[in-house]
Amino acid sequence: MAVHIRLSRAGAKKRPFYRVVVTDQRSARGGRFLENIGTYDPSGDAPFIIDAARLTYWRSQGAQPSATVDRLIKREARAAAAAVPK
């Protein structure tokens, strides 16, 4: 079973909201998932929130993030590094 970390769409029409979920790659986009580890709201104040401990755990178990989730994680890491005062 290949496990992936990807986005699952929720929200209303024209108002997308995504959950960051860990799922079997064969599951549908909005289908069954193993664990919900974060959220992504492209129009909100805090657009990307993820549980770093659970992300680390699942990656250590072999879960592969999708291209979009990988890009969001890298963007969040750059923003956190820029916010650290020197």
Describe the structure.
This protein has 86 residues and is α+β, with helices and mostly antiparallel strands. The chain is 30% helix and 36% strand. The protein has helices spanning 52-60, 67-83; strands at 3-12, 15-24, 35-40, 48-50, 64-65. Strands 4-3-2-1-5 form a 5-stranded mixed β-sheet.
Topology, please?
Layout: E1 3-12, E2 15-24, E3 35-40, E4 48-50, H1 52-60, E5 64-65, H2 67-83
Parallel strand pairs: 1-5
Antiparallel strand pairs: 1-2, 2-3, 3-4
What's the quick description here?
This protein has 86 residues and is α+β, with helices and mostly antiparallel strands. 30% of the residues lie in helices and 36% in strands.
Order the strands across the largest sheet as they lie in space. 4-3-2-1-5
Supply Rg: 13 Å
Largest sheet geometry:
5 strands, mixed
Name given to the CATH architecture = 2-Layer Sandwich
User: What fraction, in percent, of the residue positions are helical?
Assistant: 25-40%
Secondary structure tally, helices: 2
- Provide the structure class: alpha+beta
Poorly predicted regions are: none
